[in-house]
Specification:
Layout lengths: L1 H5 L9 H8 L2 E6 L4 E3 L7 E7 L2 E6 L5 E7 L4 E2 L14 E4 L3 E7 H8 L3 H27 L2 H13 L4 E3 L4 H7 L4 H13 L3 E4 L2 E4 L2 H9 L6
Antiparallel strand pairs: 1-8, 2-7, 3-6, 3-8, 4-5, 4-7, 9-11, 10-11
């Protein structure tokens, strides 16, 4: 368990003794596809690090419509901020998109350790600030940008410095993440392939023309 904690960037500033203390309050969980890790509104007693698999974080509207807030990838922590909520409850539901393994880290123990580790406090603050900025950027994109702009920006972010990427979930889930309909996502991906900008096989994509994608993202509409 301690070896896994060594791989968590958020905990990098903890010394060996602090990490050993925390390891005694960490649980390993395996999830089947579709299994709920925690539900929105339930007491938050732990935050999590995803070892393998993929986790969908989502909210439901009053009408039962699902809004995907994030798709968590391996090596990522999530739900850290709940440790400082009053009362500590999960604001979203977490569900496994495939067979997954997580570490559940006790929030009370983590909060106690933070008092003796200012660098970890700063790391947590920087991480949460980055996520807030990402959410603000996403809100701006969903209110001001077109569907094709959101899709291209998402693909470029997924690819990073590489030209190859894999969608982290089904097209239906990715569409919900981008606040567009699944049929719209399929149509846009088909159009990008037709223009020779991407290649796609199931969930695997290759970006063939990054400059062309950036130019298209800046266009107000997708012209034939």
């Amino acid at each position: 368990m301690t070896e896994d904690l060594n791989n968590i960037a958020l905990l990098a500033a903890l010394d060996d003794g602090q990490r050993q203390t925390l390891s005694r309050h960490v649980k390993h969980r395996k999830l089947e596809r579709g299994e709920t890790l925690f539900a929105a509104g339930s007491p938050a007693e732990a935050f999590f690090w995803l070892r393998t698999g993929a986790i969908k974080l989502f909210m439901l509207s009053r009408h039962g419509e699902e809004k995907v807030m994030n798709i968590v990838q391996p090596g990522t922590t999530f739900a850290e901020g709940v440790a400082f909520m009053d009362p500590p409850v999960y604001p979203v539901t977490a569900q496994a998109l495939e067979a997954s393994e997580v570490l559940a880290i006790d929030t009370a123990t983590f909060r106690a350790l933070l008092q003796d580790s200012p660098p970890t406090c700063l790391a947590l603050l920087a991480q949460q600030t980055g996520r807030i900025q990402s959410l603000l950027t996403e809100i701006e994109a969903q209110t001001l940008e077109s569907a094709h702009h959101r899709l291209i920006a998402y693909l470029l972010a997924l690819a990073g410095p590489s030209d190859d990427l894999q969608l982290p979930a089904s097209k239906a889930v990715v569409a919900a993440r981008l606040a567009i309909k699944p049929e719209t996502l399929s149509r846009l991906l088909t159009e990008l392939q037709r223009r020779g900008l991407i290649e796609m096989h199931e969930r695997k994509l290759r970006l063939l023309d990054v400059r062309g994608l950036r130019r298209l993202a800046a266009a107000p509409t997708l012209h034939p």
